[in-house]
């Protein structure tokens, strides 16, 4: 049970980590890597912004490695929480919202529609200033209204 709670707790904490990283690093010091993501059309399959998947994967992989030393320990479940959040982020952000993969084109789900609306508001700003809605899975309730 403690393993499950660690995994879920880390998953929830990752939304805050993502919000902070997105607002202060991606729209700040690391804008060079994130800027192409705010352009209306992608020229290539990959964009510089994809480096953030690697940046977030490194701690998870490291925690998996040390989390199986001498049997499963809590580090494994911290890495699992990070990985599961990354998987959800990928499915929501790259598949559902940006349609980089055409798996889920239409949805009637109010939650998913709210996520799309909030992200659209975020992308209306093409520069790094004046951004809003920096989170991914938890967005203000006003975006869930139809």
TrEMBL record:
Does Chloroplast count among this protein's keywords? Answer: no
Transmembrane helix as a keyword of this entry, yes or no, is yes
Tell me where the transmembrane regions lie.
Answer: 6-25, 51-68, 74-92
Fetch the InterPro entries from UniProt: BETA-OHASE-like
Q: What are the protein's UniProt keywords?
A: Carotenoid biosynthesis, Membrane, Oxidoreductase, Transmembrane, Transmembrane helix
So what family is this one in?
A: Belongs to the sterol desaturase family.
- The name under which this protein is listed is Carotene hydroxylase
